[in-house]
Amino acid sequence: MEYDEHEPAVQLPRFSDGWEPPSPPTLRWIFHHVFDHESYHVGQIGVIARLNGFAGPLF
């Protein structure tokens, strides 16, 4: 697979409120965002479990 690291990987829709992303969604950004977002939710699950009295995951 060949790609230009600085070239946008996907075409974004035009948002009705005029919002635009701060930078183009490159392939690197997409992978980083997916893993970062997943990590956020994994941490959320641990906190919610502990707040509700469960042992929570071992991370």
Protein traits:
59 residues; mainly alpha
Describe this protein's structure.
This protein is an all-alpha fold. Helices cover 42% and strands 0% of the residues. The radius of gyration is 17 Å and the shape is elongated. The termini are far apart. The model has no long low-confidence stretch (mean pLDDT 85).
Q: Helices and strands in order, then pairings?
A:
Elements: H1 27-51
Give the CA-CA distance, first to last residue: 35 Å
Q: Approximately how much helix is present in the residues?
A: 40-55%
- The residue ranges in which pLDDT falls below 50 over 5 or more consecutive positions are none
Rounded average pLDDT: 85
- Cα Rg: 17 Å
Number of continuous helical runs: 1
Major sheet: none
Structure class? mainly alpha
> Helices and strands, in N-to-C order?
H
Q: Would you summarize the structure shown here?
A:
By secondary structure, the protein is an all-alpha fold. It contains one helix and no strands.
